[in-house]
Every structure is written in structure tokens, then in C-alpha cells.
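Researcher: Here's a chain I'd like modeled. Treat it as a single chain, no partners, no ligands.
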Amino acid sequence: MLLQNLINYEFLKRILTGISLSIVIFCTLLFYPKVFSLIIFLVLFLILKIEWPLLCPKYIRNSIYYCLFTLLYIILPFLLIIYLEFYNHLLNFYLFISVFSHDTFSYIFGKLFGKSKLLPKVSPNKTIEGAIGGFVGVSLIAYLFFQFNIFKANFIFLFIISLLITVTALFGDLFESYLKRLSDIKDSGSILPGHGGLLDRFDSILFNVYLIYFFKDYLM
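Model: Modeled as a single isolated chain. C-alpha cells:
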């Protein structure tokens, strides 16, 4: 029964898209920083051009708050990603692999064990079990980084960062879900099969890049 919940078309489509996206992101991030930066600029452009006009709350679209909201929520996080790439690409590697691990483990734990709804009025599919799975995934990445001495930080610090990344990723996901409810749309777009729009994949990263930027000197 558990396997039947996992082995279906949507799940396989999500996995294949996720693997393809991960290969492109991580290969360019680690070996071709200029190409990675161009990809990030392209993602930013597509989000601003296609997805953000539909997702941004209508009541602020014609006010100065629109510019401020767009700057802090969309533009600045992507610029920080590019900055971190040239500051030390391992920070971006940690950011992306932690968030991707969080999303993957959250999805799997939610599918297998999810019963207790987290915030059903904001995001009906989010469960407490999924959130726990997300923390397990992020903690696993922190443990691997500690074992291979990638960061100078000790494991306790990385464990705390893992908790913060989990909470921030969850908040980013719920915040985008809240915006989608306000705008009465299901996904921010349809460019990624099984995942929705680009912003659906970057929602957790947008908040966590601030976190990584703030702690960058403690990690490296």
C-alpha cells in the first residue's frame, strides 16, 4: 500500500524533473560558475516576467509596496545567490542541496506517513510528518558536510543551522502557498513538469539564501 502511494505517474514525473534540474544546477554550480549565474539570471527573468505578475497580491500591484516586496522577496535573493557563487560556491552547494533534500524528504515522508495536517487553511497537503522528514533530510546533509570537513563549523552549529534551514524552508513554502491562495491559483506556473512553476522550486531558497549569507563567515 505504501509503495502504491509512491509509484504513480505524478511522482515519477516529479522525480525525473527533479533529477534533471538537480544535475543542471549542481554541475554548473560546482564547475561552471558563470553558466550557473546566467541560469539564475534567466530564472529571475522568467519569474518576474511570467509568474510573479500572477502571484503577487492584487492589492499591492499598483502601490510602492509592490516594488519593495518584489525587491526583497524576488530580486535580492537571486542576486545574493550569484554573490555567494563567486564568494564561495560551496555555500551555494550547501544551500541548494539542503533545500532540495528538505523538499524531497518532506515529500516522501508526507506521502508515506502524513496524517497530521500542519496548516490546512494555508497548504492542505503539508503535514507534520512531512516537516519532520524535511528536518531529517537537512540534518543528513549537515552530517555529511561535517564528516567531509567541508565547513569549519562544528556539528552542533551545523545542527542548529539545519533546524533554521528547515523552519525557513517550511516558512518559504507556506508563504508562497499563502500568496497562491490570495491570487486563487494552484501553481506559480507550469514550466516544470510535476513541480509547477519555477517559483514553486525556489520558494524555500529565497528565504534561506538570507540565512546562508548571514552565517557565511561562520561556516567557511
